[in-house]
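Board work, copied verbatim: Monooxygenase
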Amino acid sequence: MTRPGQLHLNAFLMSVGHHEAAWRLPESDPYADLNVEHFKNLARIAERGKLDSLFLADVPVIFDQVGRRPSGILEPTVLLTALAGATQHIGLIATASTTYNEPYNLARRFASLDIVSGGRAGWNIVTTAGLDSARNFNLDALPTHRDRYERAAEFVDVSVKLWDSWDDDAIVADKETGVWGDQDRIYPPAHQGRYYSVAGALNLPRSAQGRPVLVQAGSSENGRNFAAKYAEAVFTAHQTLSDAQAFYDDLKRRAAEHGRDPDHVKILPGIVPLIGATESEARELEAELERLIRPEYALTQLADLLGVDPGELSLDAPLPANLPEEEQIEGAKSRRTLIVNLGRREGLTVRELIGRLGGGRGHLTFAGTPVQVADKLEHWYESGAADGFNIMAPVLPSGLAAFVDQVVPILQERGRFRTEYTGHTLREHYALPRPANTNTATRPPALLR
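↓ predict structure ↓
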């Protein structure tokens, strides 16, 4: 091994699979997006493979057009609470927006999930791009990219104050004296900031892992700065090894500049593995899914991402030369640039680009045998491009089962992945330390009991 250590692997779950046409396959249940038993089954499959965590994305709007794919999205912290009861070890990461929530309510939801699950919760912090979302929350315009990240920073600062508003030993539970808790060990945030005013302490104590793991998924300049300061895991998308290596090096450097241990920031690109007994079989599945795409739906979403009218895109022509630049985009800046670069680097028509995006929306798609998939993951890890991966099965549950039953054993045989869980919390799975309480860590020893 050229780089020691083991991979971190998450199961990124999305209804019947990440490929937009997965629901059209004979094996798929088009109603599975609303079936809790379906998600419990996926959770058990992932835990069977000893994966680090489950991950659920979220957006406060109907995602694209309902004709395109299953569009029901159960609120992720509610769904993960159900999955916590169906599992024992696997981490539980939910997406939630800092633009369309309030710190107290959201911190309480994640603290609840963390306590119910025994310390397995993580929060994927997003600022939420898209005007449609803004219009669902009393706004006529999307807040600027910079404003969303400034708001997010204060939101996270307040959330940490809330999670740390109890000492670990604040609960005394002394029946003899009739004292349940020590009021002196409660620390109300008393926060007054630009965006938020939060006076009182959270009505929940710290969890087994201290507080939820902080995850972040933006790769723009603002996103990278935010991740370097706050994130303990970073979900990202890259099409090439060199791009992934450059991102990895840059983010680790930025984390160090913030005085953080770079090893405590896990970088986890997404990959959509299409697995077959032979490479030809994997390619056939890829081709079948691409054939089932209805491009008229994808065209609208692509145009929105690029900041152009759908009429400016021709399916059988390349991307227009005069697309808006990244700095003109207030939505998903880094994803826009990734997709434009992909289309231009490979000379794809819009139709071909839509086909490439159908499985992972910009994440790397790879078709091959179990050995080839394992080789790909190991190569990126050894090349300093990733600490692990978000596994985005194109079809569920079959794609996740194939990964767990066919790829994971290869990685385990190579010493690249755990054979058993050695910890109980998500922090332990990610080899992250339990954070000290920010209120007590800086207090003089004489004030501590």
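The first strand starts at residue 8 and ends at 13.
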